[in-house]
Amino acid sequence: LISIKNYTHPYDNKLAMIIVWFAILLVGSKAIDFIQQQFGIEIGEIKEDNLLLKFFNLTTAPLKEEPIFRIMLIGLPACLFFTNKRFNYKEFLYTLWFPSRYVNNRKVYVLIITSAVIFGLLHILSGWEYGKFTQSTFAGILLGFVYYRYGLHASIILHWSANYFLTSYGLFTNAVFAFPWDDVINNPLLAWLDLLLTTIGIIGLALYAGLLIKRFRISLMDYS
């Protein structure tokens, strides 16, 4: 994931950016949940009495969902419709894995948003409450962008981190210390991890906001 030889810019460090995007995903999801709760909109959950089965499903979900929602709904249409390049089969497969290397078209963001909306709708159909749609759509947009910018492996790791990371620590502390596995307030380890990731997410959002402002100013200077 990390190439020191070719490393030129912090935003090119895929592993570091996955950590930042994971933190941003956490902060955004918490913000969406907080706002929706003010209007009585619940995210809910899918009841599963077998925690081991729940953990297994959460862990393997990215391997099943990312090829469908990212490759089939973003990579393949982008490759077919948003580039004039003729691919050999190796380049075609590589483009599906890492679209931004060959596809440079802003229309790809329409595919990212469309894929995210479908991602959100299917979460509702799988048994979540309506509030999950907004949260899952937001997650789908981030996952789609990470897939386009950094590759399929990056979106799988980000999705896996969101599903696995806090859950694994929660289940570990539940087994060893009998802390509630899904309660950040009453689980000290989860509370510290949540605080750490929230801080990283806020810093990441600030850095990206600064980057966008800088690019906007440069575009204004070029236009003038």
Describe the structure.
By secondary structure, the protein is mostly helical. The chain has one domain. Helix content is 74%, strand content 0%. It is built from seven helices and no strands. Helix 1 runs antiparallel to helix 5 (131-150), helix 1 packs across helix 6 and helix 5 packs across helix 6. The model is unreliable at 1-8 (pLDDT under 50).
List keywords for this structure.
disordered N terminus, mainly alpha, 7 helices, 74% helix
- Can you tell me the number of structural domains? 1
Distance between the termini: 40 Å
- Helix and strand content put the structural class at mainly alpha
Helix fraction bin: over 70%
Mean pLDDT: 86
Q: How many β strands by DSSP? A: 0
Helix-strand pattern, N to C?
A: HHHHHHH
**Shape designation:** globular
Low-confidence stretches: 1-8
Radius of gyration, rounded? 19 Å
Beta-strand residue percentage: under 5%
Main beta sheet: strand number and arrangement?
none
The DSSP helix count reads 7
Secondary structure blueprint with pairings:
Layout: H1 14-38, H2 51-81, H3 89-97, H4 108-125, H5 131-150, H6 152-177, H7 188-223
Helix pairs in contact: 1-5, 1-6, 1-7, 2-3, 2-4, 2-5, 2-6, 4-5, 5-6, 6-7
Task: Describe the structure concisely.
The chain has helices at residues 14-38, 51-81, 89-97, 108-125, 131-150, 152-177, 188-223.
